[in-house]
Protein backbone atom coordinates (compact mmCIF):
# COMPACT_ATOMS: atom_id res chain seq x y z
CA UNK A 1 0.00 0.00 0.00
CA UNK A 2 1.44 3.35 -1.10
CA UNK A 3 0.02 6.70 -0.05
CA UNK A 4 0.54 10.41 -0.65
CA UNK A 5 -1.08 13.65 0.42
CA UNK A 6 -3.60 13.38 -2.44
CA UNK A 7 -4.56 9.72 -2.38
CA UNK A 8 -3.51 6.11 -2.06
CA UNK A 9 -2.57 3.13 -4.19
CA UNK A 10 -2.77 -0.60 -3.55
CA UNK A 11 -1.28 -3.64 -5.26
CA UNK A 12 -2.97 -7.05 -5.46
CA UNK A 13 -0.19 -9.55 -6.15
CA UNK A 14 -2.50 -12.54 -6.59
CA UNK A 15 -4.51 -11.00 -9.42
CA UNK A 16 -1.52 -9.13 -10.88
CA UNK A 17 -3.39 -5.85 -10.64
CA UNK A 18 -2.55 -2.39 -9.37
CA UNK A 19 -5.15 0.19 -8.45
CA UNK A 20 -4.44 3.82 -7.68
CA UNK A 21 -6.98 6.39 -6.53
CA UNK A 22 -5.89 10.02 -6.17
CA UNK A 23 -7.97 13.11 -5.54
CA UNK A 24 -7.11 16.79 -5.31
CA UNK A 25 -9.07 19.99 -5.58
CA UNK A 26 -7.35 22.16 -8.18
CA UNK A 27 -7.66 25.90 -8.59
CA UNK A 28 -8.13 27.55 -11.94
CA UNK A 29 -4.87 27.65 -13.95
CA UNK A 30 -3.23 25.37 -11.39
CA UNK A 31 -1.07 22.56 -12.79
CA UNK A 32 -1.15 19.09 -11.30
CA UNK A 33 1.83 16.94 -12.19
CA UNK A 34 1.73 13.16 -11.71
CA UNK A 35 4.97 11.15 -11.94
CA UNK A 36 4.64 7.38 -12.17
CA UNK A 37 7.61 5.26 -11.10
CA UNK A 38 7.82 1.68 -12.34
CA UNK A 39 10.15 -0.95 -10.89
CA UNK A 40 10.56 -4.44 -12.35
CA UNK A 41 12.07 -7.33 -10.42
CA UNK A 42 12.15 -11.10 -10.93
CA UNK A 43 13.16 -14.22 -9.05
CA UNK A 44 16.41 -14.61 -10.98
CA UNK A 45 17.82 -11.47 -9.36
CA UNK A 46 16.35 -11.65 -5.86
CA UNK A 47 14.43 -13.99 -3.57
CA UNK A 48 11.65 -11.71 -2.33
CA UNK A 49 10.54 -9.94 -5.48
CA UNK A 50 7.79 -7.85 -3.88
CA UNK A 51 9.92 -6.58 -1.01
CA UNK A 52 12.83 -5.94 -3.39
CA UNK A 53 10.56 -3.92 -5.69
CA UNK A 54 9.19 -1.89 -2.77
CA UNK A 55 12.69 -1.15 -1.50
CA UNK A 56 13.86 -0.06 -4.94
CA UNK A 57 10.75 2.07 -5.38
CA UNK A 58 11.35 3.86 -2.10
CA UNK A 59 14.91 4.66 -3.15
CA UNK A 60 13.60 6.33 -6.33
CA UNK A 61 11.32 8.88 -4.67
CA UNK A 62 12.69 12.39 -4.83
CA UNK A 63 15.52 11.34 -7.17
CA UNK A 64 13.85 12.08 -10.50
CA UNK A 65 16.34 14.81 -11.59
CA UNK A 66 19.21 12.51 -10.63
CA UNK A 67 17.73 9.59 -12.56
CA UNK A 68 17.23 11.76 -15.62
CA UNK A 69 20.85 12.91 -15.40
CA UNK A 70 22.09 9.30 -15.17
CA UNK A 71 20.01 8.37 -18.22
CA UNK A 72 21.31 11.35 -20.17
CA UNK A 73 24.91 10.43 -19.34
CA UNK A 74 24.31 6.79 -20.35
CA UNK A 75 22.83 7.79 -23.72
CA UNK A 76 25.59 10.32 -24.35
CA UNK A 77 28.21 7.59 -23.97
CA UNK A 78 26.24 5.36 -26.32
CA UNK A 79 25.87 8.00 -29.06
CA UNK A 80 29.58 8.78 -28.96
CA UNK A 81 30.16 5.41 -30.64
CA UNK A 82 26.81 4.74 -32.31
CA UNK A 83 25.78 8.03 -33.92
CA UNK A 84 25.43 7.58 -37.66
CA UNK A 85 24.91 10.36 -40.20
CA UNK A 86 23.60 9.76 -43.70
CA UNK A 87 24.72 12.77 -45.70
CA UNK A 88 22.03 14.83 -47.45
CA UNK A 89 19.26 12.68 -45.98
CA UNK A 90 18.12 13.90 -42.57
CA UNK A 91 15.03 11.68 -42.54
CA UNK A 92 17.10 8.53 -43.04
CA UNK A 93 19.56 9.66 -40.37
CA UNK A 94 16.69 10.14 -37.94
CA UNK A 95 15.22 6.74 -38.81
CA UNK A 96 18.62 5.14 -38.28
CA UNK A 97 18.97 6.78 -34.86
CA UNK A 98 15.49 5.69 -33.86
CA UNK A 99 16.22 2.04 -34.68
CA UNK A 100 19.59 2.17 -32.92
CA UNK A 101 17.82 3.47 -29.82
CA UNK A 102 15.26 0.67 -30.05
CA UNK A 103 18.08 -1.88 -30.05
CA UNK A 104 19.70 -0.27 -27.04
CA UNK A 105 16.56 -0.10 -24.90
CA UNK A 106 15.62 -3.71 -25.73
CA UNK A 107 19.02 -5.22 -24.97
CA UNK A 108 19.51 -7.45 -21.94
CA UNK A 109 22.30 -6.08 -19.75
CA UNK A 110 22.59 -8.71 -17.00
CA UNK A 111 23.83 -11.83 -18.80
CA UNK A 112 20.52 -13.54 -17.95
CA UNK A 113 18.49 -12.06 -20.79
CA UNK A 114 18.88 -11.28 -24.47
CA UNK A 115 16.79 -9.27 -26.96
CA UNK A 116 13.14 -10.15 -27.55
CA UNK A 117 12.31 -10.30 -31.24
CA UNK A 118 9.69 -7.55 -30.91
CA UNK A 119 11.61 -5.41 -28.43
CA UNK A 120 10.16 -4.30 -25.11
CA UNK A 121 6.63 -3.48 -26.20
CA UNK A 122 5.78 -5.81 -29.09
CA UNK A 123 3.61 -8.80 -28.16
CA UNK A 124 4.61 -10.95 -31.14
CA UNK A 125 6.54 -14.15 -30.34
CA UNK A 126 5.75 -13.73 -26.64
CA UNK A 127 9.06 -12.05 -25.86
CA UNK A 128 11.22 -15.02 -26.85
CA UNK A 129 14.76 -14.88 -28.21
CA UNK A 130 15.93 -16.16 -31.60
CA UNK A 131 19.23 -16.85 -33.34
CA UNK A 132 18.76 -13.44 -35.01
CA UNK A 133 20.46 -11.89 -31.99
CA UNK A 134 23.81 -13.50 -32.77
CA UNK A 135 23.53 -13.04 -36.53
CA UNK A 136 22.17 -9.51 -36.78
CA UNK A 137 22.29 -7.70 -33.43
CA UNK A 138 25.54 -8.66 -31.72
CA UNK A 139 27.67 -7.27 -34.60
CA UNK A 140 26.05 -3.88 -34.04
CA UNK A 141 26.85 -3.88 -30.33
CA UNK A 142 30.35 -5.27 -30.96
CA UNK A 143 31.09 -2.01 -32.79
CA UNK A 144 29.10 0.39 -30.62
CA UNK A 145 28.87 -1.08 -27.10
CA UNK A 146 31.17 -4.11 -26.65
CA UNK A 147 30.12 -4.54 -23.01
CA UNK A 148 26.55 -5.21 -24.15
CA UNK A 149 27.71 -7.67 -26.81
CA UNK A 150 29.57 -9.50 -24.04
CA UNK A 151 26.40 -9.68 -21.93
CA UNK A 152 24.38 -11.09 -24.84
CA UNK A 153 26.98 -13.78 -25.44
CA UNK A 154 27.04 -14.51 -21.71
CA UNK A 155 23.34 -15.32 -21.86
CA UNK A 156 23.89 -17.79 -24.70
CA UNK A 157 26.88 -19.31 -22.94
CA UNK A 158 24.83 -19.75 -19.76
CA UNK A 159 22.42 -21.99 -21.70
CA UNK A 160 25.15 -24.01 -23.45
CA UNK A 161 24.97 -26.90 -21.01
CA UNK A 162 21.23 -27.21 -21.52
CA UNK A 163 21.69 -27.01 -25.30
CA UNK A 164 24.10 -29.93 -25.10
CA UNK A 165 21.53 -31.92 -23.13
CA UNK A 166 18.98 -31.03 -25.78
CA UNK A 167 21.22 -32.45 -28.50
CA UNK A 168 21.63 -35.67 -26.50
CA UNK A 169 17.85 -35.89 -26.09
CA UNK A 170 17.42 -35.85 -29.86
CA UNK A 171 20.07 -38.53 -30.33
CA UNK A 172 23.15 -36.47 -31.23
CA UNK A 173 26.26 -37.74 -29.48
CA UNK A 174 28.18 -34.47 -29.89
CA UNK A 175 27.43 -30.79 -30.26
CA UNK A 176 24.79 -28.46 -28.87
CA UNK A 177 21.28 -27.74 -30.08
CA UNK A 178 19.90 -24.34 -29.18
CA UNK A 179 16.14 -24.16 -29.75
CA UNK A 180 15.15 -22.09 -32.75
CA UNK A 181 13.02 -19.95 -30.47
CA UNK A 182 13.77 -19.83 -26.78
CA UNK A 183 14.14 -18.13 -23.47
CA UNK A 184 16.10 -19.24 -20.41
CA UNK A 185 13.28 -21.36 -19.01
CA UNK A 186 12.86 -23.59 -22.09
CA UNK A 187 16.41 -23.70 -23.41
CA UNK A 188 16.97 -27.17 -21.99
CA UNK A 189 14.13 -28.81 -23.83
CA UNK A 190 12.92 -29.08 -27.41
CA UNK A 191 12.32 -25.51 -28.44
CA UNK A 192 9.55 -22.99 -28.09
CA UNK A 193 6.80 -23.94 -28.26
CA UNK A 194 8.08 -27.19 -26.85
CA UNK A 195 7.64 -30.54 -28.54
CA UNK A 196 4.30 -32.26 -28.03
CA UNK A 197 4.65 -35.57 -26.17
CA UNK A 198 2.13 -38.40 -26.37
CA UNK A 199 1.82 -41.82 -24.79
CA UNK A 200 2.02 -44.19 -27.75
CA UNK A 201 2.98 -47.68 -28.82
CA UNK A 202 5.76 -48.59 -31.25
CA UNK A 203 4.73 -51.68 -33.21
CA UNK A 204 7.11 -53.87 -35.20
CA UNK A 205 5.34 -56.18 -37.66
CA UNK A 206 6.83 -57.92 -40.70
CA UNK A 207 10.02 -55.92 -40.26
CA UNK A 208 8.22 -52.57 -40.44
CA UNK A 209 7.71 -50.01 -37.66
CA UNK A 210 4.54 -48.04 -37.02
CA UNK A 211 3.46 -45.76 -34.21
CA UNK A 212 -0.02 -46.08 -32.75
CA UNK A 213 -1.51 -43.13 -30.91
CA UNK A 214 -5.03 -41.86 -30.34
CA UNK A 215 -6.60 -44.42 -32.61
CA UNK A 216 -4.36 -43.82 -35.62
CA UNK A 217 -1.37 -45.76 -36.94
CA UNK A 218 1.50 -43.98 -38.74
CA UNK A 219 4.30 -45.83 -40.52
CA UNK A 220 7.70 -44.31 -39.88
CA UNK A 221 9.94 -43.02 -42.67
CA UNK A 222 12.53 -45.24 -44.36
CA UNK A 223 15.37 -43.46 -42.57
CA UNK A 224 13.78 -44.08 -39.19
CA UNK A 225 12.96 -47.68 -40.15
CA UNK A 226 16.64 -48.32 -40.87
CA UNK A 227 17.84 -46.78 -37.61
CA UNK A 228 15.38 -48.67 -35.44
CA UNK A 229 16.17 -51.95 -37.20
CA UNK A 230 19.90 -51.39 -36.80
CA UNK A 231 19.37 -50.94 -33.05
CA UNK A 232 17.23 -54.09 -32.85
CA UNK A 233 14.28 -52.19 -31.41
CA UNK A 234 11.21 -54.30 -30.65
CA UNK A 235 7.56 -53.39 -30.06
CA UNK A 236 7.09 -51.42 -26.87
CA UNK A 237 5.29 -48.55 -25.15
CA UNK A 238 6.97 -45.27 -26.08
CA UNK A 239 6.76 -41.54 -25.69
CA UNK A 240 6.00 -40.01 -29.08
CA UNK A 241 7.34 -36.53 -29.76
CA UNK A 242 6.04 -34.30 -32.56
CA UNK A 243 6.86 -30.63 -32.96
CA UNK A 244 3.93 -28.17 -33.08
CA UNK A 245 4.68 -27.12 -36.66
CA UNK A 246 4.71 -30.77 -37.80
CA UNK A 247 1.21 -31.63 -36.59
CA UNK A 248 -1.46 -31.36 -39.28
CA UNK A 249 -5.19 -30.88 -39.13
CA UNK A 250 -7.08 -33.59 -41.01
CA UNK A 251 -10.52 -35.13 -41.52
CA UNK A 252 -9.92 -38.23 -39.41
CA UNK A 253 -7.14 -38.54 -36.84
CA UNK A 254 -6.37 -38.03 -33.15
CA UNK A 255 -9.46 -36.44 -31.67
CA UNK A 256 -9.12 -33.12 -29.88
CA UNK A 257 -10.88 -29.94 -28.79
CA UNK A 258 -9.54 -26.42 -29.27
CA UNK A 259 -9.07 -24.70 -25.90
CA UNK A 260 -7.19 -21.58 -27.03
CA UNK A 261 -6.43 -19.97 -30.38
CA UNK A 262 -3.53 -17.48 -30.28
CA UNK A 263 -2.55 -15.22 -33.17
CA UNK A 264 1.27 -15.13 -33.22
CA UNK A 265 2.41 -12.96 -36.10
CA UNK A 266 2.39 -15.04 -39.28
CA UNK A 267 0.84 -18.09 -37.62
CA UNK A 268 -1.86 -19.18 -35.23
CA UNK A 269 -1.11 -21.41 -32.24
CA UNK A 270 -3.96 -23.76 -31.44
CA UNK A 271 -3.94 -25.27 -27.95
CA UNK A 272 -5.80 -28.53 -28.37
CA UNK A 273 -6.92 -30.88 -25.61
CA UNK A 274 -6.05 -34.29 -27.08
CA UNK A 275 -5.18 -37.56 -25.39
CA UNK A 276 -5.44 -35.77 -22.04
CA UNK A 277 -2.67 -33.32 -22.94
CA UNK A 278 -2.32 -29.72 -24.07
CA UNK A 279 -1.21 -30.18 -27.67
CA UNK A 280 0.06 -27.13 -29.56
CA UNK A 281 -0.55 -26.97 -33.29
CA UNK A 282 0.97 -24.19 -35.43
CA UNK A 283 -0.93 -23.27 -38.58
CA UNK A 284 -0.49 -20.33 -41.02
CA UNK A 285 -2.75 -17.33 -40.56
CA UNK A 286 -3.94 -17.76 -44.14
CA UNK A 287 -5.02 -21.33 -43.42
CA UNK A 288 -8.10 -22.71 -41.73
CA UNK A 289 -7.29 -21.64 -38.16
CA UNK A 290 -10.02 -18.99 -38.23
CA UNK A 291 -12.55 -21.80 -38.60
CA UNK A 292 -11.47 -23.43 -35.31
CA UNK A 293 -12.61 -21.18 -32.45
CA UNK A 294 -12.55 -22.29 -28.83
CA UNK A 295 -14.50 -25.50 -28.33
CA UNK A 296 -14.15 -26.70 -31.91
CA UNK A 297 -13.62 -30.41 -32.49
CA UNK A 298 -10.51 -31.18 -34.57
CA UNK A 299 -8.54 -34.15 -35.84
CA UNK A 300 -4.74 -34.29 -35.78
CA UNK A 301 -2.15 -36.33 -37.63
CA UNK A 302 1.57 -36.25 -38.48
CA UNK A 303 4.01 -37.72 -40.97
CA UNK A 304 6.25 -40.69 -40.25
CA UNK A 305 9.30 -38.60 -41.03
CA UNK A 306 8.70 -36.14 -38.15
CA UNK A 307 7.85 -38.61 -35.38
CA UNK A 308 10.43 -39.02 -32.59
CA UNK A 309 10.13 -42.15 -30.45
CA UNK A 310 11.62 -42.33 -26.95
CA UNK A 311 11.65 -45.22 -24.53
CA UNK A 312 10.23 -44.73 -21.05
CA UNK A 313 13.67 -43.66 -19.78
CA UNK A 314 13.74 -40.82 -22.31
CA UNK A 315 16.26 -42.34 -24.73
CA UNK A 316 15.72 -41.75 -28.44
CA UNK A 317 15.33 -45.24 -29.85
CA UNK A 318 16.87 -44.29 -33.19
CA UNK A 319 20.30 -43.64 -31.65
Question: What do you see in this structure?
Answer:
- The protein has helices spanning 49-60, 64-82, 90-106, 132-144, 146-158, 160-169, 222-230, and strands spanning 2-4, 7-12, 17-22, 129-130, 181-182, 196-205, 208-213, 216-219, 236-242, 248-250, 254-264, 267-274, 277-284, 297-301, 308-310.
- The strands form 4 sheets. It has a 5-stranded antiparallel β-sheet with strand order 8-7-6-9-15, with no helix packed on it. It has a 5-stranded antiparallel β-sheet with strand order 10-14-11-12-13, with no helix packed on it.
- Helix 4 runs antiparallel to helix 5.
- Residues 182-190 have low confidence and may be disordered.
- Strand 6 and strand 7 form a beta hairpin.
- It has 3 domains: 2-60, no CATH class; 83-158, no CATH class; 196-310, Nucleic acid-binding proteins (OB fold (Dihydrolipoamide Acetyltransferase, E2P)).
- It has 7 helices and 15 strands.
- The protein has 319 residues and is of the alpha+beta class.
Amino acid sequence: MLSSNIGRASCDVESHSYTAVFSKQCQEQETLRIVKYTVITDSRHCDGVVSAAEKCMESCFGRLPELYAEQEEYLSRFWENAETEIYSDDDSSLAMAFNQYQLLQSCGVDGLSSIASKGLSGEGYEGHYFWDTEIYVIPFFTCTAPELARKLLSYRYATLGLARENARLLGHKNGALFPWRTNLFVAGFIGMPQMNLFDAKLVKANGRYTVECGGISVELSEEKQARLAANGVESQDVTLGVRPDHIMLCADGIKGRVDVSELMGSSVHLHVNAEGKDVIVIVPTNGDAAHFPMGSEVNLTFGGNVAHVFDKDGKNLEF
